[in-house]
Design a protein that fits this description.
Layout lengths: L9 E4 L10 H10 L4 E4 L6 H17 L4 E4 L2 H7 L3 E4 L6 H8 L4 E6 L2 H10 L3 E5 L15 H9 L5 E4 L17 E4 L1 H4 L4 H13 L3
Parallel strand pairs: 1-2, 1-8, 2-3, 3-4, 4-5, 5-6, 6-7, 7-8
């Protein structure tokens, strides 16, 4: 599977810590039914075996709706579980190394906070960028902020699509209108909602108004 620009409209990153009494599987399915177009599984405290098992459960749900499943950071878990790809941060394994190991049909997303990082990720074989934090993030309180102008510059300097990430809500997403992003990535704005499906629907409507 290769990622399409349309797959990045509403990119949801999982966080067990903000679920309101639902299982992760229930929340992911509700999110997809509400319009989520890509799911990233982020598990910071699980073992590799636990992550593979969870990824395989989520993969069944995601593929039921033709939604890609991306694994945060760990490309070995992604490959062993059969997930569609991995998203790596600046301090994780180099994109070029992952591409060499995983092949062309494996999705690789990369974090970029500068034009230089974005260009390096693209030239190394990344399929898309995650750019941010565009607002203060409740899940990454130490995240480096970027301005709407910087977001525009980063999105405009590469030919691969980019998602804006970091503290985005349906109420503030209008502040990045016209910045060149292909979509938004959110965590608590979807998975922290009591009604996950309704939250995803609201975010879908809001992000479409920013193009």
């Amino acid at each position: 599977m290769k990622i399409e620009k349309s797959d990045l409209l509403l990119y949801a990153v999982t966080d067990r810590g903000c679920l309101k009494g639902k299982s992760l599987e229930e929340a992911v399915e509700e999110a997809i039914l509400g319009g989520v177009t890509c799911v990233q599984m982020r598990e910071k405290k699980a073992s590799e075996e636990e992550m593979i098992e969870e990824a395989q459960k989520l993969l069944k749900i995601c593929h039921k709706y033709n939604v890609p499943l991306i694994i945060n950071d760990d490309y070995n878990v992604a490959l062993k579980s059969g997930a569609d790809g991995v998203h790596v941060g600046i301090e994780d394994a180099p994109v070029a190394e992952i591409r060499r190991i995983a092949g062309e049909n494996f999705i690789i997303g990369a974090t970029a906070k500068t034009v230089e990082q974005a260009r390096l990720a693209e030239s190394s074989g990344a399929d898309y960028l995650g750019v941010g934090a565009v607002f203060p993030s409740p899940t990454k309180t130490n995240a480096i902020r970027i301005t709407p102008q910087q977001l525009t510059e980063i999105c405009g300097c590469v030919n691969i699509p980019a998602v804006a990430i970091g503290g985005i809500t349906a109420e503030n997403v209008h502040e990045i209108k016209g910045c060149g992003h292909s979509g938004i990535a959110v965590v608590s704005a979807v998975f922290g909602a009591y009604d996950v499906k309704a939250a995803a629907e609201q975010l879908c409507r809001a992000v479409r108004d920013t193009f």
